[in-house]
Amino acid sequence: MSRLPRISGETAVKAFVRAGWNLDRLSHRNHFVLSKSGSPESLSVPNHKELDSGLLRSLIRKSGLTVEKFVRLMKP
Predict the structure, then answer these.
(1) Element containing residue 74 per DSSP (H, E)
(2) Tens digit of pLDDT for each residue in 40-51?
(3) Where are the domains of the chain?
């Protein structure tokens, strides 16, 4: 299992957008809500300076990505 980098919520959102997710809204200024057409799931990403590794791994799994793919998407 790959080690997850320590990243902010904003950085995670950018990677999910590169993976085809759409930023729907900023909920109460502290959570980004993303959706993807054809997917019944939505992602709620906290707008924190540093996301907990368990939460990030859960979001990656929920999005249908692998950790390796997510790490590649973080790089421009």
Answers:
(1) helix 67-74
(2) 889 999 999 999
(3) 9-74
